[in-house]
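Journal club side-thread
Mid-discussion, someone asked how the predicted structure for our own chain would compare to the paper's figures. Pasting it here so we can look after the session.
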Amino acid sequence: MAFLLTMSPLLYAYDLPTVNLGATSFLDGMPPAGTAKGWYFIQYLQNYDSEFFADSNGNKLPLPKTEAELDIALTQVIYMSDIEILGGKLAIDVVQPTILSETTDDGIGNLALSAKTGFGDLLVGPAIQWDPVMGTNGPKYVNRLELQFILPTGEYDSSKTINPSSNHWSFNPYWAGTAWLKPEMTFSWRLHYLYNGKNTNPSVSYGPGVNSVKPGQAVHGNLTALYRVNRAFAVGLNGYFLNQITDTEINGNKVSGRKEKVWAMGPGAVLSFSQHDHIFANLYFENDAENRSEGDRLNIRWVHHFH
C-alpha cells in the first residue's frame, strides 16, 4: 500500500521531501498475499549511495568530493478491512521511516553538509483496494487508490542539511495497479502526485534571511515488469521517475531554476516462501538528475500477512 519512500538526501538545499522512489515495485496493485481481510507487516531496508550532486542543468557540482550515503529502515503496517466502499475494500496504511546511518563529505568541510539520524515523518493513508478482475486463466487486473499524508512528526534540526523530517506536511496520493499480460508475466505501476506545505524553519543551507520554504508540486512513480520463473522465484525490471512541476517558494516568492528531476532503472527479483511471506529485492541506477543527487539505490523488502 502506501509505501514509502525512498530517502534521497536534501543536499545543498534541494527542496522536495523524501518520497517513494522505487521502494514498492512488483505486484503493486495489491498485497502479494491477496486482498483478504487482516493485518500485513512490511519491513524495508534501503541503501542510497550518491555519485554526485547535480545542478539545474544536470551537471556535477564542482566539489572535491561528492560522498553521500544513507541507510534507512521503513516499518509499515496495513490493515485490510471488509468494509465496502466504491466497490472496493477500505484499508488503512501506516509507515514509519528511520535514518539509521549517514555519511556525507564534499571535501571542503561544509558544516551545513551534515545529517541527523532518527525517526522520520509518519505516513498515514486511507485506501480503497479493489479485488482482482478475473479471467479464464487467473487474475487480469487489480488496482488501489490511496490518499496518503506525510506528517511532520520526525526529528528535525535546521542546522543540518539532511534530516529525517522535512518539517512540513505533504499530501501524496497515488494510484497503483497490476496487469497480467500472461499468467506468469505482470506489469505494475504506482503514480503519485505530491503537494507540499510550508517549512517555517528551513535549513541553514538556504542561507541567511530565509524564513520559509514551500517546495513545489511534483509527480513521481514506479514502473515494473516481472516474469515468474516458478512459484517461488520471479525476476524483472524496475524503475522510477520524479519530476517537479511547479517552482519552489522561498519567503513566499517563486524561485525559478530549482525544479528537481531524476529517473532510474535496474534489475529486481522476488522470492516467495509461501502465499504469506515474500522478499523483494530492487536495484536502481539513477540518470539525468537535476537539482538533486544522482546515485545508486538498493531496496530489500519483506512482506508478511498475518493469517
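Post-session note: Residues 47 and 71 are 5 Å apart (CA to CA).
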